[in-house]
Amino acid sequence: MASSESDTGARADRNGEFRQLSLGEIEAARSRHTWTRSAVHVTGDLVLAGRWDGTVTAFDADSLETRWTASHPDHAVGIATLEDGTGTGSGTDADAIVVAGRGETGTIAAYNAETGAKQWRYDTAADVGDPVRDSVFYLPYVVAIEAGDTDAGDERLYAAARRYERDGDVRRWYSTVLAFDADGTVRWRYETDASPIAIDLAPDGDRLAVGYNRCLGDHDHGLVVLDAATGDPKWTWDPGTPGDRRVGDVSFDGDRLAVASHGDKRGYLLGPGGAERWWVDLAVETEIDGETLYAYPNHVSASDGRVAFVTGNTYAEESRETENRHPNEHRVTVVDAAGDPVWDDAVRGFVHGLAAADGTIVAPCAQNFRVRDPGTHAIRWFDRETGTGGVEGFDGIATAAAVADGTIAAIEEPVEYHDESETRGEYAVHVGSVDGC
């Protein structure tokens, strides 16, 4: 077991090595963690921040001086790098920064990495439909984007978008997975009536895994692995549990695929064709003081024979409100290629999404809404092999993180607990070094 601040319960104090820049204003989150409202990305010598008002800013990773600013049509909630794209629109190859949106149009757009000039735009509302209600939960939402080489060596962008609607007791999802060439040309679409939550491209570029966390209609598989060249399904998998909850996250490690299961609250490693290599209990139903408690495994990151799972908030089977805590809530658990434990540690708060690169795992932590302890507001990072790492405390909540080439970047958002009048923290981007911290 890794020894860290998070297990001792000490406050995550600032260590002085992180620098920060204000991102302006945003409505404070409340006691419960809120939806994804920001994005951060590290690529080359740039740190990019996407804001709820649609502003995308590229900062120099060393000086934090602004390189360029662009206006995205929607809330900017996801960022990726598309390498060697047609970055200038004049035939000269250059990297592009691709931004995923949540809003009226559910826009995916590519911007020149050097200048911020928009290169192409695609509105996913053309696939998933327009919102039927003026509510954030009804807006078209590009939940995931990922760039990588195909097995033929071409650079391609993959994206998953969804839209929700409700008519009385009838709930529906409309979703599509898309593949784009570097110039924005759509190569294929894969459409379902389920809710995608995560995608991951295999290292050899020939398969794309799509995790679905809600299956309410005809589509009844929590996981679909697509041919990355054509979009045709290669195989499917499902935890086989009752209800519409299925998969929380997916992550390839070579020809193996790790899956965080919302259905039975376990972690799985699948081989080719979906053969189950092993499974581990993460936050399965547990009896405490006469209540049946559980927590969802929300994230997974697999690499080099190590699989990291992260669990979320406690819920009770009979009621979503409980004063008790599941013993494995808000925890990172790492196992080896055989499914045997390597290390585990507490993250103490709700993790919006994992970032990982070069053997480092970064977890941005919001408050634990049942305890409302500001000491949980932090980013925490771990060495994938040993569990050692560090922590940087925020006054507000950490809601997004990125890591690349030894640089860690994170977004802080202000929070106001529902039973207090104090606003903690600010809207800011923080940048530090894995080694320097």
From TrEMBL:
<dbReference type="InterPro" id="IPR011047">
    <property type="entry name" value="Quinoprotein_ADH-like_sf"/>
</dbReference>
<feature type="domain" description="Pyrrolo-quinoline quinone repeat">
    <location>
        <begin position="53"/>
        <end position="236"/>
    </location>
</feature>
<dbReference type="Pfam" id="PF13360">
    <property type="entry name" value="PQQ_2"/>
</dbReference>
<dbReference type="InterPro" id="IPR015943">
    <property type="entry name" value="WD40/YVTN_repeat-like_dom_sf"/>
</dbReference>
<dbReference type="InterPro" id="IPR018391">
    <property type="entry name" value="PQQ_b-propeller_rpt"/>
</dbReference>
<dbReference type="InterPro" id="IPR002372">
    <property type="entry name" value="PQQ_rpt_dom"/>
</dbReference>
<protein>
    <submittedName>
        <fullName>PQQ-binding-like beta-propeller repeat protein</fullName>
    </submittedName>
</protein>
